[in-house]
Every structure is written in C-alpha cells, then in structure tokens.
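We now fix the convention by which a protein and its fold are recorded. The integers have meaning only within a learned vocabulary of local backbone shapes. The record below shows the convention in full.
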Amino acid sequence: MEQVGTLRTGTKSDKWMDFTARQFVAPSAPGFVWNARVSLPLGAHLRVLDSYVSGQGGGSVSLLSAIRVSSASNEPELNSGALHRYLAESVWYPAALLPRRGLSWTPKDDRSAVATLTDQGIEVSLEFRFNDADEVIAIYSPGRYGRFDGEYRKVAWEGRFSDYRQTGGYSIPWRGEVGWYDGGTLHLVWEGEIKSIHFQRGQ
C-alpha cells in the first residue's frame, strides 16, 4: 500500500509535515511494517518506521534515513498500541475483519459493533461505526496507549474514513484521518490517502 498525506508529532504541535509511505501487511499473522519519508525544510527528511511483528510493536525515527533520533520496541504499551493500529487499519485489508480464532465481534447498536482482537497474549478492542451503506466510517477506542510528554498513557482515540472505492475485489476507503481526544475534542495528528494498493491472496 502506498500513501501520501500530512502528520504532526502531537496534538500540541502546530507544525504539519508532508509524508509519503509504503506499508506492508500480513493479515494472517497479524502484522505490518510502515515505512514513511517525512519532509523537512531545506530538502531534509525523516525516515519513520512503525511495525507490529510477532506480537512486538516497534518504532524508530532517523534523520536523513541515517542518524537515529529515537527508537523503541517490545514495550507492553507499544505492543498494545501497535495492535490497536493494525485492527483500525483493517478497513484497508477487510478480510482480516472476518470472525476467526482471536477475533470476535459484539454488536452495540444498528450502526456500530465492537471488534476484539487477541494476539500473542495482547487483547485490544475497537468500536467500528457504519453508515447506511454498511461502510466503516469511523473507529473509536476510549483508551489506546500513546506516548505523551515522554510517558505512555491511555487516551481516547478515533479514526475516520471516506471515499470508498472498489479495489482488488474489496470496497475500501481511500481517505482517512486519525487523532486523539483532549478535553472532549478530537485533535487530528494524521491525514492521508491511498495512492495504490495491491493484494496477494493465498499468502
């Protein structure tokens, strides 16, 4: 999957930065690797790698793809947050949302249901919200782990999706935005769109 968009480092930052990214996903694992290039002034850039592999979340930031600025891996809060992200982004690989061992659904009302995913001893839940066309228009967690002011905290988190298109036999959203709640207000930190996506079945 190839993406383009803008992001910022936190809800208190006024600086939005353009990015391009490639993401590889293994729905049966589950797992993902997100490899992004974030533009900086004067032609510089940051390389951002986020992942969830074999039950372990990971993240690193490098200046000019060479100088390591920060990194973290296999911390309980990071692992949980990464699995939350994987589940939310399943709208882009919807076969992963089919009920199976480790994934269950609980109806909430006519237009929402809660998906619970368990992997490697980690359990996360997300509320999926649907429109009248049965498309996922939003996901919500009352508490997803994020890093704020140098420490992990559980904060309400929401993603919104739009511009559904038929692609590779699936109906998926080509636009999305994600943010954290503060004082009851959603503050976006990521806005992006899909430029291309390729499915390999039977892998």
